[in-house]
Amino acid sequence: VALVKKKNKVDDYFCGGALISRLYVLTASHCIERENASNIRVALGAHDSDNGPEPVAVSKFIMHPKYYRRTYLNDIALVKLQEPATLSETVRVICLPTSPVFTSPNDTAVVAGWGWNRYQQGKSYKQLQELELPILSPPTCVSKYGGVIQETNLCAGGLKDKTHAP
What we know:
It comes from Trichonephila clavata. Belongs to the peptidase S1 family. CLIP subfamily. Residues 1-166 form the Peptidase S1 domain. One of its GO terms (biological process) is proteolysis. Keywords: Disulfide bond, Glycoprotein, Signal. Strands 2-1-5-6-7-4-3 form a 7-stranded antiparallel β-sheet. A two-stranded antiparallel ribbon has the order 8-9. The radius of gyration is 16 Å and the shape is globular. The relative contact order is 0.17. By secondary structure, the protein is mainly beta. The protein is built from 2 helices and 9 strands.
């Protein structure tokens, strides 16, 4: 899933998300906090921004009520689609665990997104990016990224020249 807005009359894929039901996409609050739902569309099943699906309209955003911009605490939000998604071979609702899943520093996480490409003047990548990162312990996370880490944070990263997800 890609969040899309028009930039110079061209669709700009600027953030990712996951379809959690036919009507809702899970994304990050920092992606939508300065946006208006009427200006954003969602490309379901998107993998390549130059050859992506026709984006669908959004009816509203629901940001976590305790989202804190400075530390990204509770950086989670829902995007409600105007119409239920049409499911297909390339558009599916993700499987979510039925009970809490705990991770340990020995685990790895796969992150996906459109990223920020510093080699292209900060533009997003044209293809959806994927990266496997190690889960970091809270003390390692604090020493690596600084700031206050909450028990609800999942911290991953630590690879040179790779992205991270505190």
